[in-house]
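In the design runs reported in the main text, the only information available to the sequence generator was the tokenized backbone. The following block is the verbatim input for one such run; it is reproduced so that readers can re-run the procedure and compare outputs position by position.
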């Protein structure tokens, strides 16, 4: 799969590369390290930065990056140094402070590292990289400085977002070209299907759906609708939190990678979790993508296919305004009926109502046009790594 996946351009090699440390505490799942690893690779490959990633959970990381060795305290992958970060005080075997320090998602930097930042002859540029949100207030807070209460240091808030004035979202320079090459090549598509599912590509009248989601009560109704659909549905399910529901539906003990099952017009393949660059091809091979969290949500937008977002649930339903803010951007130019259908479907997939597949399918042509238009619109906000490096250049003297 990695042969068709984007490779983030040729390495730039400036004479005095900017050194950058990224600190990542994994809260759960794969999004924290998924975003940090994608950013690290882009900073190294496209901008020639010398990157080090401190990460506290190598097990989660290895799912995205199988060549990672769990027992090593320090290793180099794709030209990036990976340090196993033993929170909270550990800051690597030798304390070296980088030119740019990124604390991902408000994780706490080691106190000894902060103290060393303050003592550095040239004070580093310190970012707090926030979670992505499509809400309007993001643009007002993006790039605001926050002085440290004790040291002569200032932290800059970097807010990823979907609208102008935000930090944008990650996008590799060659991503569109890699997608276009995959979509234009029946051989690449056919190889992908055989390698990943063990089967030939499905017939043209089938709708291919990728399903990456948290546990979700709405899935039972949707599986029934797909089983009873007039035309074939081919479902591709990376092994994970939704797999148990598939096993129950098909009356199987599990829905582990390699399992295939058919009921009515629904046939489903359980896929192995791939290395991170391979995930894009799954989105390109599908007609509709169900995604979750943050990084797969962004990848689905670049895949330019209709998609359904299972947002990361937060206490007190704090995620619901974020879901609606994303919908407002994404559906902006859709005709009213298609817009309402998509809103209903996303809401149902996030706990409010029942998903109506027939209605979704009826609006598919309009949703597909909008998905392509939205990818162009979103690209105008600029890629996050490019936005971050441009800002850094203005600050580093
Ligand atoms: O895994 P996620 O749900 O991650 C998160 C975390 O829960 C985090 O705490 C939360 O704050 C954040 O979401 C919003 O979903 P996400 O962000 O899509 O990350 C999944 C990563 O896994 C993404 O980088 C794509 C990658 N992936 C693969 O590498 N291979 C695969 O086969 C699949 C399905 C995904």
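Verbatim output:
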């Amino acid at each position: 799969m990695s042969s068709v996946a984007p490779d983030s351009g040729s390495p730039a090699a400036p004479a005095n590369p900017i050194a950058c440390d990224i600190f990542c505490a994994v809260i759960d799942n794969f999004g924290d390290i998924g975003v940090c690893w994608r950013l690290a690779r882009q900073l190294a490959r496209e901008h020639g930065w010398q990157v080090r990633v401190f990460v506290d959970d190598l097990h989660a990381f290895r799912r995205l990056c199988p060549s990672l060795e769990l027992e090593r305290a320090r290793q180099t992958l794709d030209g990036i140094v990976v340090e196993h970060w033993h929170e909270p005080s550990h800051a690597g075997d030798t304390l070296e402070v980088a030119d740019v320090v990124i604390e991902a998602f408000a994780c706490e930097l080691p106190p000894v590292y902060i103290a060393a930042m303050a003592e550095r002859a040239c004070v580093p540029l310190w970012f707090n990289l926030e979670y992505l949100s499509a809400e309007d207030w993001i643009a007002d807070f993006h790039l605001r400085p926050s002085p440290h209460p004790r040291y002569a240091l200032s932290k800059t808030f970097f807010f990823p977002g979907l609208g102008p004035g935000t930090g944008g979202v990650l996008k590799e320079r060659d991503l569109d070209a890699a997608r276009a090459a995959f979509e234009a090549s029946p051989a690449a598509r056919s190889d992908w299907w055989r390698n990943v599912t063990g089967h030939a590509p499905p017939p043209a009248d089938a709708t291919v759906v990728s399903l990456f989601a948290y546990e979700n009560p709405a899935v039972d109704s949707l599986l029934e609708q797909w089983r009873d659909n007039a035309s074939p549905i081919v479902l591709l399910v990376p092994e994970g939190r939704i797999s148990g529901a598939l096993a129950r539906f098909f009356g199987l003990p599990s829905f582990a990678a390699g399992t295939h099952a058919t009921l009515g017009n629904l046939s489903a393949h359980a896929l192995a979790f791939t290395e991170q660059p391979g995930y894009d091809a799954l989105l390109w091979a599908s007609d509709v993508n169900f995604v979750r969290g943050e990084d797969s949500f962004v990848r689905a937008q670049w895949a330019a296919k209709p998609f359904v977002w299972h947002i990361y649930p937060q206490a007190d339903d704090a995620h619901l305004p974020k879901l609606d803010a994303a919908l407002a951007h994404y559906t902006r130019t859709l005709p009213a009926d298609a817009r309402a259908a998509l809103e209903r479907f996303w809401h149902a997939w996030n706990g409010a109502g029942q998903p109506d597949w027939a209605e979704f399918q009826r609006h598919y042509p309009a949703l597909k046009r909008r998905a392509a238009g939205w990818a162009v619109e979103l690209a105008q906000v600029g890629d996050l790594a490019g936005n971050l490096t441009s800002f850094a250049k203005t600050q580093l003297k």
